[in-house]
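Postdoc handover notes: sequence design on the structure in folder B. Input tokens:
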């Protein structure tokens, strides 16, 4: 497992989240004059920009990124999902649980497909830069936020451009291990016939070969002195082409690859479908009930990361705007009712420890997540209620 994978995973998933939210906010947008007459709060263009700016500001918070870029193992799927739950609600926008499930499914499956299509492991960095380029475009009218994004560019270039091909291969393998049990069907992929009905992707056997390699079809044989003695042609079984040029790894430049660009820019419905004969038979990985011996270390890392996520809370919950990722409210309600139990992220069970220092550290972590004025629960029960408490932050 690579200890440099987390920043790329977070930035790419965050970029996909912004693509989806931007598309949904634009779809629900109505003119300002009609919004005033609406019986319930309605989205206008200023609200969309505010939501995008708030989320991007939180996503690229300096303290947050300092912790993110430290070499570390990937978080568990549940911990990473918790981070994105909080990030998605870093503004006045509100998603109910079914829409948040759908949003996270779309994010993960889109990036999984992009990783699978990277013909060269280093192309994962180009995919990340495509997401970063789009994020810059979202905040082009906000210089202060733009400077945060540019600083992240510099950190990405400084950390990843010197890495060898072997190190990028390890990063790609780490990402594929993270995604290997996720097989959620997405309508866009199904319609484009790049995903099967069981949620597995169909990978092409033709197209451009990785930059720096030759089109397969030629065997060359050399003598012991290094001289070429013969050549043999063979049918490669595909329609391969040579790449014209390598993508740019600078802040500004042509990435060449289209992986990581906004696939929702073209107006078409975006839906997820549960794999199997019914929605209740979703092929989600069930979370093991066995206590994780590394739970405390993971909580420490998660606490430091989420300590930089300052969620803006409206004075009244009714003042927040709700975004629905389904076609109708009825579909959203049906998805919420049929939501599998294994997708519940409310509670994580952690084996208590008698070590006083560990308990003190855990108490300190929980103190950061407790709202001012609330009484902190006892150290022995804090770990069990961590994610439940974070749902209320």
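Designed sequence:
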């Amino acid at each position: 497992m690579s200890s440099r994978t987390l920043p790329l995973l977070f930035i790419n998933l965050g970029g996909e989240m912004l693509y989806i939210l931007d598309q949904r906010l634009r779809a629900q947008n109505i003119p300002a004059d009609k919004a005033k007459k609406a019986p319930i709060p309605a989205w206008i263009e200023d609200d969309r920009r505010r939501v995008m700016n708030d989320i991007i500001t939180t996503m690229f918070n300096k303290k947050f990124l300092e912790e993110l870029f430290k070499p570390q193992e990937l978080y568990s799927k549940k911990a990473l999902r918790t981070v994105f739950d909080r990030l998605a609600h870093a503004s006045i926008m509100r998603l109910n649980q079914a829409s948040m499930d759908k949003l996270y499914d779309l994010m993960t499956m889109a990036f999984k497909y992009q990783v699978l299509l990277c013909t060269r492991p280093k192309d994962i960095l180009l995919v990340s830069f495509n997401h970063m380029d789009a994020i810059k475009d979202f905040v082009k009218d906000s210089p202060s936020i733009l400077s945060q994004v540019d600083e992240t560019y510099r950190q990405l270039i400084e950390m990843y451009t010197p890495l060898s091909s072997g190190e990028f291969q390890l990063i790609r393998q780490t990402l594929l291990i993270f995604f290997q049990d996720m097989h959620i069907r997405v309508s866009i992929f199904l319609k484009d016939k790049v995903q099967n009905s069981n949620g597995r992707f169909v990978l092409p056997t033709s197209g451009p070969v990785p930059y720096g390699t030759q089109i397969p079809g030629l065997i060359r044989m050399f003598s012991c002195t290094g001289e070429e003695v013969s050549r043999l042609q063979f049918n490669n079984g595909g329609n391969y082409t040579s790449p014209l040029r390598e993508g740019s790894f600078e802040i500004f430049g042509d990435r060449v690859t289209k992986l990581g660009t906004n696939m929702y820019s073209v107006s078409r419905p975006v839906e997820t479908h549960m794999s199997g004969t019914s929605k209740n038979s979703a092929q989600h990985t069930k979370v093991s009930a066995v206590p994780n011996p590394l739970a405390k270390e993971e909580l420490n890392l998660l606490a430091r990361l989420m300590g930089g996520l300052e969620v803006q809370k409206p004075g009244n919950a009714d003042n927040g705007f709700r975004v629905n990722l389904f076609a109708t409210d009825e579909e959203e309600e049906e998805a919420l009712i049929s939501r599998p139990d294994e997708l519940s992220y409310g509670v994580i069970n952690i084996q208590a420890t008698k070590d006083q220092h560990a308990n003190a550290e855990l108490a300190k972590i929980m103190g950061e997540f407790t709202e001012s004025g609330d009484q902190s629960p006892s150290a022995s029960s804090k770990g069990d209620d961590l994610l439940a408490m974070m749902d209320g932050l």
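Context for whoever picks this up: Strands lie at 93-94, 185-186, 207-208, 218-222, 228-233, 240-241, 272-273, 321-322. Don't rerun without checking with the PI first.
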